[in-house]
Amino acid sequence: MAIARRKLPDGDVWSLPIEEIDVGRPELFEADAIFPYFERLRREAPIHYCRGSLYGPYWSLTCYQDIIEVEADHSTFSSDASLGGIAIYDQSKNFRLPIFIAADPPKHTMQRAVVKPIISHRSLDQLEPMLRERTRKVLLGLPRGEIIDWVDRVSVELTTQLLATLFDFPWEERRKLAWWSDVATVEEGDLEKDRQREAELLDCLAYFTRLWHERASGEGRADLISLMARSEATRKLDPMEYLGNIILLIVGGSDTIRNTISGGIDAMCRFPDEHRKLKDDPKLVQTAVPEIIRWQTPLAHMRRTATRDCQLYGSLIRQGEKVVLWYVSGNRDKGMIRDADRFIVDRAHPRRHLSFGSGIHRCVGERLGELQLRIFWEEMLSCGLDVEVVAPPARVRSVFVRGYKQLLVRIAN
Question: What CATH code is carried by the domain that includes residue 343?
Fold first, then answer.
């Protein structure tokens, strides 16, 4: 089914003065209208300075290889929360959530190592049968012939089940995890709503603090909270740093996987020939999954802050300036990815994408995410579900999370 494209908010992007382009506009992402802007920047200004935006001035990097090179230089381009963190918008000085991804070595290295046991090969092998059984149960339980919201019925349900398992979180309250993920990543810019958001996150802190105290003395448990409570690198975290790392793990396990599940369904409906190719040869799941991850790019960017004055590809970057690494643009860079604007389930070199980042900050949950998505598509094909998207998707208004609020579908009888 063809999905109608929405009009670009600014009309013809190619007629705008290049200095007036601001790719950090949430409405462009909400309307799925951002890609022509990135195409123009890649062609004409691969390093681009925006003087005025919702988030203040910032530099944009939009080409694949440039992003890789800057991400590798963490001494010059820092992720540290004290300098602003990993998003284009600065954290509130009065409500700062330090997280290990928003840190530089050695702190980043030590805290990242704490969660690695839960995504080891052995752990994933143990998770796979349970994930497969749950996925099949959710898919087989979907009603046929009526319109449903795929985001709620499938994407959120599967990811909250996974998160509840990883945290050993009370099963009947697992939807709180999706709610806190949404609260943490929403971009309001309204003082009253920001205060409400902070209150919700403090409720999250209180809930997980109770779980921490229950787990701190328990031996033999291998859930994420127990690992953090017992590790030398994390057992003395102050409350806000604990909350920050919990939110990081929730968002990493909720928003990224759930939006890629939704994005995969959307992509298959937009490219029916590719979907048919996958149904004819289910072994193509191995290449289709990383292609879906590239196509969706669930986190649109990461931000770095310059620690010193430096020259970057002929441009002078001043100490303290923001440098935004647009993964969503690098993943459409035709100089690195052939036919980058096409969705191709049997793409050669499908893992040549930036959705997981690169270098020391490459996503620690990469293998877990790929496992969940591989199982999902294997079970989709096994169940023979014929899903039709019946309305344009409702997307998240965010420049950080590329997400779906609603995806209305009908499953054939």
Answer: 1.10.630.10
